[in-house]
Write a structure and sequence with these properties.
A hairpin with a 4-residue loop joins strand 7 and strand 8. It contains 8 helices and 11 strands. By secondary structure, it is of the alpha/beta class.
Length: 226
């Protein structure tokens, strides 16, 4: 899963990023409301941690514009403002949860997990299953029967995306944005390279699941007939 942190205090933003990375998230940071809104509207994120006191656009305005565009991205407001009026205003603007600074790291992570669980495609456990495969974020392990293999971070990100979307076709651009990030300079052939890596690992595991190429469209998972 990919998270967006919109926070102008660099040290705090990096602290939140590091906490989320330890919990298995891929994380991007925006340091002002304008770039944060642009990134949030990209559609590549599963959750957003948003400060209120931001340059260019404050968090309330970011929220209003995000919801006005029809985005259902789960948003956790993270701010020093803790009075009732600000909490109400934040929730009325479209926030899903409100957490005041200073916060406990465990509470932040619990809030993020709660928000992502509300999305139907996100599993509540650390294991995603499809066909004869199990993908475990603890150690980035892919298992098939009694065999297992460790994936790199990019391989894990792609496999997670494919397994969460099952037979849905994903285009290269979506995969690139979701796994490499909005600001990455990686190109679409990077997706092809890592899909090749994953296919070799599926063959090594002797899995009945394969990654199917849909010409001019993208990739999806497919179970081979038994």
């Amino acid at each position: 899963m990919r998270a967006l942190v919109v926070e102008d205090e660099k040290r705090l933003a990096e602290t939140v990023r590091d906490l989320l990375r330890l919990d298995g998230y891929l994380v991007d940071i925006s340091y002002d409301g304008e770039s944060g809104l642009d990134n949030a509207l990209s559609g590549i994120y599963d959750v957003c941690v948003l400060d209120i006191m931001l340059p260019k656009l404050d968090g309330f305005e970011v929220l209003r514009r995000l919801r006005r565009e029809g985005s259902g991205l789960p948003v956790l407001l993270l701010t020093a403002r803790s009075d009732l009026a600000d909490r109400v205003r934040g929730l009325d603007s479209g926030a899903d949860y409100y957490l005041a600074k200073p916060f406990e790291p465990k509470e932040l992570l619990a809030c993020i997990r709660a928000l992502t669980r509300r999305q139907p495609e996100i599993r509540e456990t650390d294991v995603i299953a499809y066909g004869d495969l199990e993908l475990n974020k603890n150690g980035f392990l892919l298992r098939c029967g009694g065999r297992e293999i460790r994936l790199s971070r990019k391989e894990y990100g792609l496999m997670e995306l494919l397994m969460l979307n099952r037979e849905r076709v994903l285009d290269k651009e979506t995969m690139l944005l979701k796994v490499w990030g909005y600001e990455s300079d990686a190109e679409e052939n990077s997706v092809e390279v890592y899909i090749s890596f994953l296919r070799r690992k599926l063959a090594h595991l002797r899995s009945g699941v394969r990654i199917k190429t849909i010409r001019m469209a993208g990739y999806c998972l497919e179970k081979t007939p038994e």
